[in-house]
Amino acid sequence: MTALPVGGPELPQRRNLVTEIPGPASRALMDRRNSTVARGVSTTLPVFITAAGGGVLLDADGNSLIDFGSGIAVTSVGNAAAAVVDRVQAQVAQFTHTCFMVTPYAGYVEVCEALAKHTPGTHAKRSALFNSGAEAVENAIKIARHYTGRQAVVAFDHAYHGRTNLTMALTAKNMPYKQGFGPFASEIYRVPMAYPLRWPDGPEACRAEALSVVKSLIHAQVGEQNVAAVIIEPIQGEGGFIVPPDGFLTGLADFCKENGIVFIADEIQSGFCRTGDWFASEHEGVVPDLVTTAKGIAGGLPLAAVTGRAEIMDAVHPGGLGGTYGGNPVACAAALGSIETMESQDLAGKARRIGEIMVPRLRKLAETHPAIADVRGRGAMIAIELTKPGTLEPDPASTAAVAAYCHAHGLLVLTCGTFGNVLRFLPPLVIGEDLLEEGLGILEDAFASL
Ligand SMILES: *Cc1c(COP(=O)(O)O)cnc(C)c1O
């Protein structure tokens, strides 16, 4: 075996294809994978990665691909970012685990301090750390129920909150997330999302009506007094990067406040500088009662958090929250390195700059390709939705064809959306502008090839 390649920002920042995609080494690994890894765990692009950093992924055949996925909005600071690697290496050499519930350590506290500093609002806050986004969402619901003494939880069409039992119930889409996995948790109520493109009478009607539709459904079908929490992604992720019209989130937060309902912003995908602010809620000055975070928080190590108003968080009795690995010291070290990088390199500003480059080029592309029905998102969380030209009928086949073209030409893109007809772009926030432009060029070629 040859020496292992080193990743991180030093990795040459260029696209370079030396074999077809996937190449022979990846195909051989895929064969081994298929005879040992469960079929239910799927793969978007079957190239096996050996190193990654900045805006590129290096595979087992020596191909270097442009990364517009960040491992699903995780490696916002770049893979193997210097501050993450340094802190993780130091921590691993010191100690790897004690269990914070048995004997604590400073890193956990420091992450909670950073969360208090960067999450929206200046009120007193508390945080609890977990391993995955789904676990954070589960705990946010537990906390909201305990605090309010109520049980009902309101979630939205197109929502994605995870794959555990409670979070599957909160997630809207059946295939692949829920099919055959019931029964699901009870006391979950679903209301329409303010989805401008697909609102019955269009975007203007969406802006005018969505909030009152949601409020009247909650009133008529659940009863405000029974609702523990309303949970919403400020920009929906897996559901299709759906951005509600201005006023919807603020109105929803006000409604919750008036009715003693805990307003939970699930910022697991939209948080940590992705949308050009530290959190997407900030765009309109929304201050959620609880915020769930994960993905971008720790540069790729598994960490998640619930952060919220001290009186809500502290309503839970000692011992009521926790988990063996929650806030693992190595993951906390990674989070501190990641947050430090976001601060020192102004990655929120970088995200805005990425949006400024991407959106005009995508809008121009949409002018010549009527399959692109919508260009939306904010900062470095951008998507295009594909339909049969002149209609709202989703076009998942063209979406898959564009993604396949990009993959074959060394650009990793991801799809999403309830109807599988959305291409989403989540580049690492440290990606170079040349690579970003080159990736957009490949995407343009992909549409030309349709
Ligand atoms: C990914 C995601 C989750 C689930 O996070 P996991 O770490 O995969 O459990 C929950 N909510 C949102 C908005 C997400 O994007």
| CATH H-level homologous superfamily name of the largest domain | Type I PLP-dependent aspartate aminotransferase-like (Major domain)
What ranges have pLDDT less than 50 throughout 5 or more consecutive residues?
Answer: none
- Which of globular, elongated, flat, extended, rod-shaped describes the shape? globular
State the share of residues found in helices, binned by percent. Answer: 25-40%
Write the CATH fold name of the largest domain. Answer: Aspartate Aminotransferase, domain 2
Enumerate the strands of the largest sheet in spatial order, edge to edge or round the barrel: 4-10-9-8-7-5-6
Structural class: alpha/beta
Beta-strand percentage range: 15-25%
Span of the ends, CA to CA? 41 Å
Mean pLDDT: 98
Number of domains: 2
CATH class of the largest domain: Alpha Beta
Radius of gyration: 22 Å
- At CATH's second level, what is the architecture of the largest domain? 3-Layer(aba) Sandwich
Can you count the helices? 13
SSE string, helices as H and strands as E: HEEEHHHEHEHEHEHEEEHHHEEHEEEH
Give the total of beta strands.
15
InterPro entries: 4NH2But_aminotransferase_bac, Aminotrans_3, Aminotrans_3_PPA_site, Class-III_PLP-dep_AT, PyrdxlP-dep_Trfase, PyrdxlP-dep_Trfase_major, PyrdxlP-dep_Trfase_small
Pathway: Amino-acid degradation; 4-aminobutanoate degradation
Protein name: (S)-3-amino-2-methylpropionate transaminase
Family: Belongs to the class-III pyridoxal-phosphate-dependent aminotransferase family.
List keywords for this structure.
450 residues, Aspartate Aminotransferase, domain 1, 2 domains, 37% helix, binds pyridoxal-5'-phosphate
